[in-house]
Amino acid sequence: SFSCTSDSPCDALQAIVGGDAILVSTSGCSPEDVALVPFPSTIENSAWLTFVAPDSGCISIDFDQETGGDGDAEMGLFSSGGTCSDFPFVRLNYNDDRGSIDPQITNLDLTPGERYYVMLDGVFGDIATGFITFSDPCMDETPTGVPTMVPTTSRPSSTPTLNPTTSSTPQPTRFCGAFCQFLCSVLPELPRCP
User: Fold this and answer.
1) β-bridge pairing 59-65 and 129-135
2) Average pLDDT over residues 151-166
């Protein structure tokens, strides 16, 4: 059985962008006044989370309904203008899955370093229970361990070379086959190209 531990913006669960999923439930939570928290529908049982926008200003918030919830969920993203009690809040985004897909919110224009609030509500009084994750969809997701091409100061800036921090293996001195032929067709200035 879940109990509401984040019944108001000032009691909001702290989320870390890129951190672990947080188990949250609207069970036992009280409603909010839509005059203070603008929402397109009646708020029956709201749970609150808060996070600080990452440097990119991008956020994706995903709610995944778990066993124990008995119905529909909706989410809103808000800015407060200062603190958790600076009402009325400004609604920045809203998503109601209406029973088909768990709600998700994506915003790409938040102010980096500013605190934002997320309200999870059970539609028509339903209990929304599940995991919520906060991620940065704008974060560079370059795979690790993959050599990257960077210019070096010992060669002309138009000649790329493998970054020595990702590959310490000496490069072969002879022509290396079809892949090198392709590279030479794209970058004919490479020193090993005929």
Assistant:
1) antiparallel
2) 40
